[in-house]
Structure formats: C-alpha cells, structure tokens
Amino acid sequence: MSVFSHPDSTSTNQVSSSHSTGTADRGRWSTQRIAMYALFVALAMAVSFIEIPLMPAAPWLKYDPSGIVCILAGFAFGPSGAVIVSVLGFVPHLFVNPLGAVMAILVALGYSLPVAFIYRKRPTRAGALTGILFGAAVALVAAIVGNLFITPLYAHMSMQQVASMIVPILLPFNLLKFVINGVVSFLCYRPVCKLLTR
C-alpha cells in the first residue's frame, strides 16, 4: 500500500520504505507506522471533544474538527489509516453516547475512505480534490440517513420530526461542516506530507 506521497516529493521511496508494511517489516506494521497511527488516533480523540455550535437556530448541533484528522489519516496512510483513526478516534464517546458515536464513525468513514481510495489511485492535487468532493457527498448521505434512523433512537424524536429538519437545519449544518473539513484538509495535506517524510 502506498503511503502519503506526491509527485513533487523528492523522497517518495524513502517514505514508502519507512512506513511500509511489506517484506521489510515481514508482513507486520513498523514501529514508526504504529506510533503514527497512535498519534493520529489520540489527536482525533482530543479534538472530538471540541464542540462549536455553527447554527444559532440549532445550538445542539455542534462541530468538532475530528473529521479533519480522519481525512488526513486517509491521505497519509490510505484506507487502513482512515478506518483505524475514524473508528478508534470516537471510542471514548461510545461510553457516553453510543448511538451518536456510531453515527459519527459512519460519517467519518464516509468522508475519509473515499479520500483514501481516490488519492491512492491519483496522488495529485486533482486526486486530492476529487477525493474530498466525493467523500463530502458520501458523508452527507451518511449523515442524513444516520439522522433519520439513529437520532430517533436516542433523541426522543420521531423519524417524521427528524425528516422535517433535514432541509432547514441538518442539510446546511452538514454542508458547512464538510466544507470546513474539506478546505482545511486540502490546505493541510501537503504540509502533513512533508512533516511525515522527515
């Protein structure tokens, strides 16, 4: 599996060898890769507790930057990194709000996995942008479906009540959330690449 690389990078082979999971590591993850995964998971956990209300009309809907960490993990380590960070990053919330955490995991996977798969096939700026746009669309569908079927289970609301909030509240909130995640991730993925290849 190729890792975070870019055609402009002069150390692609060095990156691949330092993070590879192939014969050099005898089929096992390198210590460096495990440490990087742990760092990304810890960062996702930490920022998931930063909650910022984006819409005065719906103060209970709060944005946290953990999605950015999950997307960057997809860029840096491919689909396996996206899955590990997107799932383990929300483990603390499973003990507080398990259903909400499940929905957050599904949305994070919906965004980060398309990014990881597309960028692995096209490790260019165009590939990164395509992955972000496609991931945002998948995550938006996951968020709406999750709200329809999961939110009524713990928010004491009917599916019809949730459905009535899709256009005026849920759709604009999630669009704004995914725009923030996408823009920040697109601006940060190359600096993160350089940092990881040092």
Strand content: under 5%
Series of secondary-structure elements, N-terminal to C-terminal: HHEEHHHHHHH
**Amount of helix:** over 70%
Arithmetic mean pLDDT: 86
Distance between the termini: 19 Å
Number of E-state strands: 2
State the helix count: 9
Assign an overall shape.
Answer: globular
Short recap of the structure:
The chain has helices at 12-19, 31-47, 66-88, 91-94, 98-121, 125-149, 151-154, 159-164, 166-196; strands spanning 52-53, 62-63. The protein has 198 residues and is mostly helical.
Describe the protein.
- InterPro entries: ECF_trnsprt_substrate-spec, RibU.
- GO terms for molecular function: riboflavin transmembrane transporter activity.
- It is found in: Cell membrane.
- It is a multi-pass membrane protein.
- It comes from Bifidobacterium animalis subsp. animalis IM386.
- By secondary structure, this protein is mostly helical.
- Helix content is 72%, strand content 2%.
- The protein is built from 9 helices and 2 strands; from the N terminus they run H-H-E-E-H-H-H-H-H-H-H.
- It has a two-stranded antiparallel sheet.
- Helix 3 packs across helix 5, helix 5 packs antiparallel against helix 6 and helix 6 runs antiparallel to helix 9.
- The two termini are 19 Å apart.
Question: How are the SSEs ordered, and which strands pair?
Answer:
Blueprint: H1 12-19, H2 31-47, E1 52-53, E2 62-63, H3 66-88, H4 91-94, H5 98-121, H6 125-149, H7 151-154, H8 159-164, H9 166-196
Antiparallel strand pairs: 1-2
Biased composition (Low complexity): 9-21
Protein name: Riboflavin transporter
Family: Belongs to the prokaryotic riboflavin transporter (P-RFT) (TC 2.A.87) family.
